[in-house]
Sequence to fold (457 residues):
Amino acid sequence: MFFSKLADHQTQLAVIDQELTLTYTQLSGKVDEFSAILQEQLRHPECQRPLVFLHAKNNYLTLVAYLSCLRLGFPLLLLDPDLSADKRQNLEQVYQPNLLIDDLNIKLLHYDALLLSEVLALMLSTSGSTGSPKQVCLSAKNLQANAESICEFLPIQPSDKTITSLPFFYSYGLSVINSHLLAGACIVFNQATLLSREFWDCFKLNNINSLAGVPYSYEMLLRLRFETMDLPSLRYFTQAGGRLASNLVIRLAQLAKATNKRFFIMYGQTEATARMAYLPDEKALDKPNSIGCAIPKGELRLVDEFGHNITAPHVAGELVYQGDNIMLGYAECRQQLSTFNPEKTLMTGDIACFDEDGDFFIKGRKKRFIKLFGQRVSLDEVERYLTEKTLECYCTGDDTSLVVAVKNHHDIKVLTTDLSVYLKLHPSVIKVISVAQLPVTSNGKKDYQQVLKWAKS
Fold:
């Protein structure tokens, strides 16, 4: 496993965090030291394998704690460090962790033994920053398999340096960290935003070789004239976390070609530990709407509404993935962490088709999720949140905006601000409309399509 063989990379540079630098040998030593401290904290006969909540910041302290827990086999849940106190408390009540770790500071909550599956290694949120208790549960095998696949299709070299442009607790950001650790490459920790001068000063100072971003990242960068930036050290850049408009894909692919760099479109879900598909960079100009093919050691196929495989090109069906990176399952409470019955295949909930070359194209979503700024938002959860406030509403949208139709609501600005704070999203991607009557279809179902039409009119 990548986390148990850090020292194999010896004097390769592993971490840069402001003035601190660590080789892989030194990083492995730090992990050993903290692992010993963790074990000392748990000298209790009833608590041999604790559940850990880790405040996942973009710094090397988080990395050391993360790797220590993986080495010791202590299951951990990665927390957004900016999650509100009430949401954190709710998660603690639901899962009853033994330990909280923040910047290597350990808070022991209790010694009670929790019944945890032997294969459980990591828990990642399914719904961004809403604080929902629903978690994707992953094994160490999942993490290793996905890191190995990523290292096969991305040109990560041991001499590379990447920069933390995404949150540690986000599956895409975590996959960048895991794959670089496996390759023996260097991670430059940075807490500035991608659009800040501080970020690009750090980028240039450290001669960064790769960049990862979600659609919003590149939308903003292109507005800030990313194409004119002088970035001689950058060899390749990647995009995942939702669909990027095809005209922007073309611009980025043209930029890569003109500057002798490489641009990779990727597709994934937290349920598959991060990545399921990628578009080879040479195809980006010709197929800007495609997610490409399955990652190495993975398999993609389509099924119709009856579960039969679709074998003809340009026929839409649900996208199904198979690979060793598929999660153990979901959990919504502590009791569900004891036993898992992993599925061999993952029904993605996305409707897709493939062309004559076998490249896949996403056509829409079967499930009620959207992705904004790379953050997955459950439309049903937002709807429930507003219903609890005694509002009659429908929530819909796409990967560009959340659309909320509220019956006879006049203070739209206040509601927009409330949703912005609750979801931790910029208000520019939240559109609230007041309607006299919420529409229904002829069979009495909620008419979300009509809401979308009203929002666009």
